[in-house]
Write a structure and sequence with these properties.
alpha+beta, 4-stranded mixed sheet, about 25% helix, globular
Length: about 160
Amino acid sequence: MDRRRPISYSDLVKHPGILNDILFKIVFGTTSGEPTMRALVNALLDLRGPDEIVELILLNPISEKEYIDDKGPIFDLKARDSKGRQYNVEVQLRPGVGDYVERSNYYLSKFYSEQIHRGDSYQDLLKTVSISLVDFNLILETEEVHSTFLLREKTTGLLLRSC
């Protein structure tokens, strides 16, 4: 490697593979990739029987901005199943500047909030799931390769669910 020039992204990522966001969208984010995407989400979320996703509708990955200075996320992949559940799938090769968890939470909350408009009932909000496929150790406190996070009461461990 030539030490006279700065290290570039291509120097660090020689074989990006399927976690490259462009390759990921080509394989999973097209109409022909829908069955593969559906199988991936079913496997990652362990959905079977009546909970299994039987159809995914791929959505526009670009969120509309309400105000010009809003931060408008561009999702890697957004989908909705036949039961109305929403899925955001993000891929990330490098930890970047260390803000991936914050960005992921922002994307999830933005996707969730896009469902409702003035005059709509909060009861119309549908389950929204965010899936992150990363090529680095995101959660330093564990060696697990698969983690699931839910809203849970700190003391009792009770899950926060709607009625």
